[in-house]
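C-alpha cells please, single chain.
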Amino acid sequence: MRLLILAFLALQSLPAADFHATTCEGIYPRHLQGICTNDKDAIYWCWTDFLVKTDTDGHLLKKVAVANHHGDLCFHAGRVYVATNLAKFNRPAGEADSWVYVYDGDTLVELAKHRVPELVHGAGGMAWHDGKFILVGGLPPGADENYAYEYVESFKFLKRHVIASGYTLMGIQTVAQADGAWWFGCYGKPTVLLRADEKLQFNGKWEFNASVGIAPISGGRFLIAQNIPVRGKGHSAKVFIAKPDPKAGLVMETP
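Here you go.
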C-alpha cells in the first residue's frame, strides 16, 4: 500500500505537458483538417492525405501518406483515430463512404479501420470522452441542424444526437470535449464555433475559427490550429492557445 501511495504522489508531482503556440514543420500539398495531442509530448496534425506527428515545438517526428480524405482526429490509449471519408461530402445519403482509420501513436503504422456508415454525409471529425467516441461530419445545404454520432470503443453504433445549431457550411469539421462541454469548429464566412453540454445539447454559437483544429490541454485551455497557404507550394499550419470566455466562447491568449 505504501508503494502505491508513493507512486500516486509521484504521478501527481509530474509537470503538466508543455503545449504552447508553435508551427508544424514542413509544407503539405493539402490543407490542415485537424489536430490532437497525446496529453504528454506530441501533437498530431492531419493534412487530408498526410498524417504527421511532431514534438511540442512542432519538430517533425513521423510523417505518413494516408488516403484522401483524412479529417479531424483524436488520441486514445496509445492510438490515433482519424475520421475519414473516401467518397463525397455534404451530399444526400448514399454518396459518402465513411470510416475511422486507426494508427499506432508512436510509429503512425496503420493498425485497423472501421466502417461508420451512419455518417451518411461524410465522416469529418471525432473525439474520445468518457468511454465513447463522438463523430461529426458533413451536411447538405438546406439542413437546419447538425448531428453527432456516438459509438462504443469497438465502433458499435449507439445513437445519433441532434445539435440544434441551425445550418453550418459543410456541417461540423472539428470536435473536442473539455470540462463538461463539447466544442465544434465549423466553416463559414465568418467561421463558426458551436458548444454543447455534456449530453450534447446545443448551448452556444460564436464567430471563432476552430475549423481546422481544436484540442484540449491543461488548465481548461485549448490548442487552436490555423492553416496557412504557402503560395505555389502548399500549406503550413500553426497552433495557438485559447481559453473559454463567457461572452465570446473562446478567446486567444496573448503571448
